[in-house]
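Record type: monomer structure entry
Structure origin: computed from sequence
Chain ID: A
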Amino acid sequence: MEHDSIFLMEFPIPLEVKTVTAGLRAAEYEAYLVGGCVRDLMIGRTPKDWDVTTNAKPEDIVRVFPDSFYENDFGTVGVKTGSEDPKLAIIEVTPYRTESGYSDKRRPDAVTFGDNLEEDLARRDFTINAIALDDSIGHIIDPYLGQKDIEHKILRTVGSPAERFEEDALRLMRAVRLVAELDFALDGETAAAIKEKAPNLKHISRERIRDEFVRILNSKQPMMAIVLCQQLDLLEYIAPDLTRGIGIDQNQAHSYDVFGHLLRALQHAADKDWDFDIRLAALFHDVSKPETRRWSDEKKDWTFHGHEVVGSRVTRKALEDLKFSRETIEKVSKLVRWHMFFSDPDQITLSAVRRMIVNVGEENIHHLLNLRICDRIGTGRPKEQPFRFRKYKAMVEEALRDPISVAMLNTDGSRIMEKFHMKPGPRLGWALSALLEEVLDDPKKNSIDYLDTRTEALLALPDEVLKDLGDAGKKKREEREEEELQNILKKHHVC
């Protein structure tokens, strides 16, 4: 096997890592840094984690490092360093190993510990991850010419691409993710094999697919990565709803089809380094334009009535399928639902703005505003925030100073219980919710005197009447939501 380069190089390696490798060598074992950390060092990036490989077996590693743990089937031992840096607190040490049989296209049927570094490198996915470093002398072992691929910014597999992707189908997505993270290009043979093996993603758990998807969206080039996923037939196994927007022309306000618009909105969120939830919402915000698209003879243009309502439900199902957390699903679905908020400051009131904040959640309102910016840039417009939008943002900031939640009322449960000699119970919650509905319409009512007077009147009401008043706001919003959805379904024959 050819070694492209075996020479001395100096790299900034943390003391915690050097201590582990030196400890193995002192015990007369081999020790090399390997994988992503070596790749990142060569690219000039700071590694996020450090992996060590050795000819020592797991029990040997534990003997060398008594303060370690071994709880897996692949021989990896976690060595505790005592570092205050979480990235260096545990260094993973894995014996040389070979793998065989990948019947489920996810993990090897058998793992055998070995004594040969080059056999260990042969099992790895991509050439840029199959480079080993002896950190004691800067000795590089590179049997698959990974350094050349790093120099030319090419991603290719170790050996046969078809075989590597047959072993672990998640490598199909990992290839795209690495291209996006590193700004590399795919080797032609590797790309062809990805397209051929794309259906193998069906064998991968949705959780593992979700994790790679998250890393793709969090990269600096998510637009390019999603396009690549689509070109290589991966997207239909990740988020098939997105593919429906390909070739779907929009109205005159848009320069791109639905798919192109979503990707440009996503990329703007990445360019601004905004939170993941904004990126995810940007990618899905117009996902239901294809099924809500209708031609208007009056406008001589396409319309998409209710796409945000339908899209919120489609987004929820897509994220549930990908096993996202409940918190993420709720937040992103809300952002999609309300991204079409009316923002003409000359035609809306502060009361309307306050209710919009209640709809989306105070904690989400700034993310909603940023999503709207992504939406605008995604149309092809160069200006991020026109004058009207800046005025609307000012109204939001003003509205946020008004009470928009029970917690912002000038009274609370403890005070009401003490003043009106109440015990904890549902009547207390109903009363507070009823007070909030009044204050949303008129913030001036958020005074202690008014709230006390109104609370006394509310508490005199029978349970059923008080409950109706307390639930009125939420009930109205839910009823409006359902009515709007049903009207869309009926009018536009949307499923």
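Annotation 1: The two ends are 59 Å apart (CA to CA).
Annotation 2: The chain has three domains: 15-146, 271-400, 406-492.
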